[in-house]
Amino acid sequence: MADLFHFKQFSIDQSGCGMKINTDGVLLGALVQSGDPDSILDIGTGTGVIALMLAQRVFRAQIEAIEIDQAAYETALMNFNNSRFSDRLKVHNNSFQNFSQEHPDKRYDLIVSNPPFFLNSLVNPNQQKKQARHTNYEFFEELVMFASQHLTAGGTLCLVLPVAIAEKVTQLAALQGLYPESQIDVKSFANNEPHRSIISLGYEKEGFTKRDFVIYRGQKEYSAEYRKALRDFLTIF
């Protein structure tokens, strides 16, 4: 099947999803750090890849996912059910805004998202791809507000975003009492400027760390740190 992507411990059927497997998602799934969470929520799960990577990494965690698109929800549900982690995975066909209203008392140790982030750009004419990729700042205001309401006391919100948007979201989060815990700036090559930031936000104001992460050592040659981060997941390593 052309849309089937095989990882070492699970497979992802990508059919019906506006956002396919991509580097942003797998890096978030591999690099997010949040101690040993018991409960995880993946917002905008798409294919379910981040939730499945976290299910592999965090053996005891109960993981829920939210997906607003019906076709993507059905694909994620199938991927969850076909995995060895199915007893710890659950997906909801909903927006996170409605989910919050329906489950106001739900709390999570870790909330993750690879959200849509195209702002003020040419909108994709495909409605499903538009929903998966395009957004506005109001979306991020609502997202950090959701996190402030649904994180446990020591919980973490972790997002992968373009650098400029990550800076704006960090400012929005501070208004909700969430502050930067760590930041990983992702570069294609060592001498490039970062094109993505993986930001972790929580209630503590102290102890912020920041580092770079380089994907390629040379043309078509992955760096040692990329190989190390993905070696438990990607079949090419």
TrEMBL record:
It comes from the Bacteria. Its EC number is 2.1.1.223. One of its GO terms (molecular function) is methyltransferase activity. The keyword Membrane does not apply. Transmembrane segments: none annotated. It catalyses: adenosine(37) in tRNA1(Val) + S-adenosyl-L-methionine = N(6)-methyladenosine(37) in tRNA1(Val) + S-adenosyl-L-homocysteine + H(+). InterPro entries: DNA_methylase_N6_adenine_CS, SAM-dependent_MTases_sf, Small_mtfrase_dom, tRNA_Adenine-N(6)_MTase, tRNA_adenine-N6_MeTrfase. Its main location: cytoplasm. One of its GO terms (biological process) is methylation. Residues 27-161 form the Methyltransferase small domain. It is found in: Cytoplasm. It holds the Pfam family MTS. Keywords: Cytoplasm, Methyltransferase, S-adenosyl-L-methionine, Transferase, tRNA processing. Belongs to the methyltransferase superfamily. tRNA (adenine-N(6)-)-methyltransferase family. PANTHER family: TRNA1(VAL) (ADENINE(37)-N6)-METHYLTRANSFERASE. Specifically methylates the adenine in position 37 of tRNA(1)(Val) (anticodon cmo5UAC). This is tRNA1(Val) (adenine(37)-N6)-methyltransferase. It comes from Paradesertivirga mongoliensis. The lineage of its organism: Bacteria, Pseudomonadati, Bacteroidota, Sphingobacteriia, Sphingobacteriales.
